[in-house]
Amino acid sequence: MKKTKTELKKIALEKIKTLFQEARIQFNENSFLSNKYVKLARKIAMKVNLSIPKEYKRRFCRHCYYYLVPSKTCRVRVHKSRVIYYCLKCKKFMRFVIKKKL
Ligand SMILES: [Zn+2]
User: 34, 44, 54, 62: least buried by Cβ within 10 Å?
Assistant: First the structure.
């Protein structure tokens, strides 16, 4: 039986979750693997036209897809209700707006 698109996306999401978990585990041992997992997760997401969940978007650099670990591979700063990530690999910034809870 052929899998539906929703099913494929569900499977892809599971794979992405696993890859990011692995990337975190592997980081101390082998950061090269972490970067590989991020790229793989991105490929899987693109294949099924799925956007990477928000919680993982801050875990990698959107310019060079380097796995980001605060104070190790990136610097994190909070400025005017924005979180700014500075990638130490490609020296670029990423900004995220902090949503205020009402
Ligand atoms: Zn980068």
Answer: 54
Q: Return d(Cα 58, Cα 95) in angstroms, integer.
A: 9
CA of 12 to the centre of ligand 1 (A): 24
- Catalogue the long-range contacts made by 16-22 (C-beta closer than 8 Å, 24 or more residues apart): 16/41, 16/44, 16/45, 16/50, 16/52, 16/53, 16/56, 17/53, 19/44, 20/56, 20/59
Ligand 1 centroid from CA 92, angstroms? 6
| Distant-in-sequence, close-in-space partners of 36: CB < 8 Å, separation ≥ 6 | none
The predicted-structure confidence for 45-57, as pLDDT tens digits, reads as follows 999 999 999 999 9
pLDDT tens track for 12-30? 999 999 999 999 999 999 9
Determine the distance separating the centroid of ligand 1 and the alpha carbon of 31, expressed in angstroms: 14
